[in-house]
């Protein structure tokens, strides 16, 4: 005859010290490998976001010039109303209709759009001496071509550049327009 009684098991279900140490070792190895990769991913995403944002605004400036039949100016600005005499675009920039066609953003010119500053992780600088992009009524930028360099401040990833040609079209590049490496200073 079988007994239908309940067997009592006093067995403890837990981790041994060796199992715990193995788990901690695997976890620390995983973190050691994942943290640098995560920093690279964050930098890459910040750079990609900044590039996409600026390209979108360049295309907007070009299309506004064609639509309005007037020159437009895209230039760095930190106050949302005047162009800076700077090649640093991180603090923000504005899109202005050049109402009097003097190739400058004046007090009487219409500010179409104000773009706030970017992620400080990525530095955005234009070619020396190129402080604005001017588009004529045909959407071209003759004489105002420039290279915008996107540099990771922590130097985790390689820099990229947007090159705006005389035809007014932006393109992405791993080098400057002359083929030399992008310098970040």
UniProtKB/TrEMBL annotation:
Bilayer-crossing regions: 12-35
Subcellular location: Cell inner membrane
One Gene Ontology term, aspect cellular component: type II protein secretion system complex
Start and end residues of each General secretion pathway GspH domain: 50-168
InterPro entries for this protein: N_methyl_site (IPR012902), Pilin-like (IPR045584), T2SS_GspH (IPR022346)
Membrane disposition: Single-pass membrane protein
GO biological process: protein secretion by the type II secretion system
Family: Belongs to the GSP H family.
Protein name: Type II secretion system protein H
Phylogenetic classification of the source organism: Bacteria, Pseudomonadati, Pseudomonadota, Gammaproteobacteria, Chromatiales
């Amino acid at each position: 005859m079988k007994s239908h009684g309940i067997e009592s098991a006093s067995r403890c279900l837990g981790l041994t010290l060796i199992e715990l140490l193995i788990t901690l070792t695997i976890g620390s190895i995983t973190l050691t490998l994942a943290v640098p990769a995560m920093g690279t991913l964050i930098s890459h995403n910040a750079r990609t976001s900044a590039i996409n944002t600026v390209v979108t605004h360049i295309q907007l400036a070009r299309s506004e010039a064609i639509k309005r039949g007037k020159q437009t100016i895209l230039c760095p600005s930190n106050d949302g109303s005047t162009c800076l005499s700077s090649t640093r675009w991180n603090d923000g920039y504005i899109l202005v209709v050049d109402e009097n066609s003097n190739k400058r953003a004046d007090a009487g010119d219409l500010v179409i759009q104000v773009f706030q500053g970017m992620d400080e992780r990525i530095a955005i600088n234009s070619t020396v001496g190129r402080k604005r992009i001017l588009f004529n009524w045909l959407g071209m930028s003759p004489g105002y071509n420039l290279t915008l360099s996107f540099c990771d401040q922590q130097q985790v990833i390689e820099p990229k550049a947007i090159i705006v040609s005389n035809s007014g079209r932006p393109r992405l590049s791993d080098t400057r327009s002359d083929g030399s490496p992008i310098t970040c200073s």
